[in-house]
Automatic annotation (TrEMBL), chain A:
Its main location: membrane. It is a multi-pass membrane protein. Residues 74-265 form the ABC transmembrane type-1 domain. Keywords: Cell membrane, Membrane, Transmembrane, Transmembrane helix, Transport. The chain crosses the membrane at residues 12-34, 78-99, 111-130, 142-165, 186-208, 246-265. It is found in: Cell membrane. This is Carbohydrate ABC transporter permease. It comes from the Bacteria. Belongs to the binding-protein-dependent transport system permease family. It comes from Sedimentimonas flavescens.
From TrEMBL, chain B:
One of its GO terms (molecular function) is ATP binding. Keywords: ATP-binding, Nucleotide-binding. This is ABC transporter ATP-binding protein. Signal peptide: none annotated. The keyword Metal-binding does not apply. InterPro entries: AAA+_ATPase, ABC_transporter-like_ATP-bd, ABC_transporter-like_CS, ABC_transpr_MalK-like, ABC_transpr_MalK/UgpC-like, Transp-assoc_OB_typ2. It comes from Sedimentimonas flavescens. The lineage of its organism: Bacteria, Pseudomonadati, Pseudomonadota, Alphaproteobacteria, Rhodobacterales. Residues 4-234 form the ABC transporter domain.
Length: 279, 331
């Protein structure tokens, strides 16, 4: 057994560092949560104090639920995020499989071209994208956002997934071919389950920027019917007056679904079923 | 009837010519072993037969039918992989029955065949387990079972034993030999281990650099190797080669003597300096230098020989082989 691992001092230091980091990371979330339950005065007087009987107030949540169609925003965000993730994973995995599995002329170049998107931020093309969306009539629809986010997420997805797919045993795929499985069945039934941890990683990486994005909803789909949660919360932030109760409550709401999605995906990171296939 | 006929099969990966003009036949029920050092193209040849790689030129016939353009699943073959390649998310039963379900066989036929295969391979208690819950030997048996249920025209084995430990390898080797007797099916078996080749094969195909060096029964190859490479490759420990000039003044050929044909002899022609001795109980392997040439002698029984000592080795003239500078037999 490794001595460094059993040394209690090392264990303590390691856990200490991890706990310290966890506290730092969770602190802003904690502050948002406690302040969302306080009156406006209490937020400014003592931002770090817990809500007590005097300062407790649900005024923020009431405002959020009353003003604007909060559930619609919520639903929009959810549709956009889930649909984009689905398309990113589906097309990303298929492209990655083609690049890693089949030898064809220009496959290296194509892989490089697909990975180029990692280096070039999609926002540089905002004007062109807006132009495109207006002329295709997709502006002010959720499809505009889904398509843009899919495009934004694909390069990294292809890059990560093709690396993982290269590691899937050739023998396994060939066994499938000899057993008469089609290429699609091999892809969906044999390869995808084996790269599930990588798929979960890609999903988690893509989910948070999409959920939090303000830029594209503001430009491509700012109408009431297509507002996302992040954009919807902006109504409470004014140039002169900001309704902090409402902003904090909206943010608290917004954290929940990301948390739920994260839990779903991170469970996939646990392998287990994958062992025993080869060797 | 012939199970498989290859005619002038070539395979290139880009500029690399991997298989060069390979022609051979496998008769019905024959156990053929492809053997050769790593990189000789034996696995590629197997994959070309399976249809996992296309031959660049040449003709492949399985049971008389040309299959160059037939996909692997329609060629009537089944393959056992070195890494087992079991489907991790399917139980043993489903692993074995997948191909049959894919072919659309009726349920009772599938059940019958899986049950038969499981009985043959002692897999009955494991049918509902997943591959991750099995040991290496059991996984290999499942892989073999998956091939058996298809009742293929030819079984293809790609180094099936190289992931098993030595004891299990011997057992599984015997199981495969038994299986061949029971099924009397044609089998092609790829290995780099000459012991597996010698013990299993009806016919050995020795490959080197993508070329067939010799085809024949194990004893034919052992007794009449076509060239120095085959002579050195088959037999363990491998054949000793030294300039014939050591024995006959002025002879410029290479002489080959198998380790088991060397014996201790006080007036033997080879004066050897012992470097190392391996005592195996039944045999004693003596590794010695004859001038600057290393020679191995396999002596039957136990001998008290120690490193550093000198001894004389003899051999009978009928048990020697002679090769010219190109490695071809020279009488």
């Amino acid at each position: 057994m490794n001595k460094a691992r059993t040394n209690p001092l090392n264990t303590f230091a390691m856990h200490g560092a991890l706990i310290f980091y966890t506290l730092i990371a969770l602190f802003p979330v904690f502050v948002i949560l406690i302040n969302s339950f306080k009156t406006r005065k209490a937020i400014f007087k003592e931002p770090l104090a817990l809500p007590d009987t005097e300062s407790f107030s649900l005024i923020g949540y009431q405002t959020v639920l009353k003003q604007g169609d909060f559930f619609l925003y919520f639903q929009n965000s959810m549709i956009v995020t889930v649909a984009s993730l689905f398309l990113i994973l589906l097309f990303g995995a298929m492209a990655a499989y083609a690049l890693s599995e089949y030898r064809f002329r220009g496959s290296k170049l194509l892989g490089l071209y697909l990975a180029l998107g990692i280096m070039i931020p999609i926002r540089i093309g905002t004007v062109a994208i807006l132009d495109l969306m207006v002329s295709t009539g997709l502006v002010n629809t959720l499809w505009a956002l889904i398509l843009v986010y899919t495009a934004q997420g694909l390069p990294l997805a292809v890059f990560i997934l093709s690396e993982f797919m290269r590691q899937v045993s050739d023998d396994l795929k060939n066994a499938g071919r000899i057993d008469g499985l089609s290429e699609y069945t091999i892809f969906f039934r044999l390869v995808l389950p084996l790269v599930r941890p990588a798929m979960a990683t890609v999903a988690v990486f893509n989910m948070i920027p999409i959920w939090n994005d303000l830029w594209f909803p503001l430009i491509l789909a700012p109408t009431e019917a297509t507002k996302t949660l992040t954009l919807g919360s902006q109504v409470f932030i004014g140039q002169f007056v900001t309704d902090w109760n409402a902003v904090l409550s909206a943010l608290s709401f917004a954290i929940l679904p990301v948390l739920a999605l994260y839990v779903i995906f991170s469970r996939q990171l646990i392998r287990g079923i994958t062992s025993g296939a080869v060797k | 009837m012939t199970a498989l006929t290859l005619t002038n099969v070539n395979k290139s990966f880009g500029a690399v010519h991997v298989l060069k003009d390979i022609s051979l036949t496998v008769e019905d029920g024959e156990f053929v072993v492809f053997v050769g050092p790593s990189g000789c193209g034996k696995s590629t040849l197997l994959r070309v037969i399976a249809g996992l790689e296309d031959a660049t030129s040449g003709e492949i016939r399985i049971a008389g039918e040309q299959v160059n353009l037939t996909p692997p699943s329609k060629r009537g073959i089944a393959m056992v992989f070195q890494s087992y390649a079991l489907y991790p998310h399917l139980s043993v039963r489903k692993n074995m029955s997948l191909a049959l379900r894919q072919e659309g066989q009726p349920k009772d036929v599938i059940e019958q065949r899986v049950a038969n295969a499981a009985r043959m391979l002692n897999l009955d208690p494991y049918l509902d387990r997943y591959p991750s819950e099995l040991s290496g030997g059991q996984r290999q048996r499942v892989a073999i079972g998956r091939a058996i249920v298809r009742e293929p025209k030819i079984f293809l084995f790609d180094e099936p034993l190289s992931n098993l430990d030595a004891a299990l390898r011997m057992n599984t080797r015997i199981e495969i030999a038994n299986l061949h007797r029971q099924l009397s099916a044609s089998m092609i078996y790829v290995t780099h281990d000459q012991t597996e080749a010698m013990t299993l094969a009806d016919k050995i195909v020795v490959l080197r650099d993508g070329r067939v060096e010799q085809i024949g029964s194990p004893m034919e190859l052992y007794n009449n190797p076509a060239n120095q490479f085959v002579a050195g490759f088959l037999g363990s420990p491998s054949m000793n080669f030294f300039p014939a000039g050591l024995v006959n003044e002025g002879d410029d050929r290479t002489m080959g003597v198998r380790p088991e044909d060397l014996f201790l002899s006080d007036d033997g022609p080879l004066l050897a300096q012992v470097i190392h001795v391996e005592h195996l109980g039944g045999d004693t392997n003596v590794i010695a230098n004859v001038q600057s040439h290393q020679v191995t002698a396999r002596l039957f029984g136990q001998h008290s020989i120690e490193a550093g000592q000198s001894l004389r080795l003899g051999f009978s003239a009928q048990k020697t082989f002679h090769f010219d500078a190109d490695g071809l037999p020279a009488a």
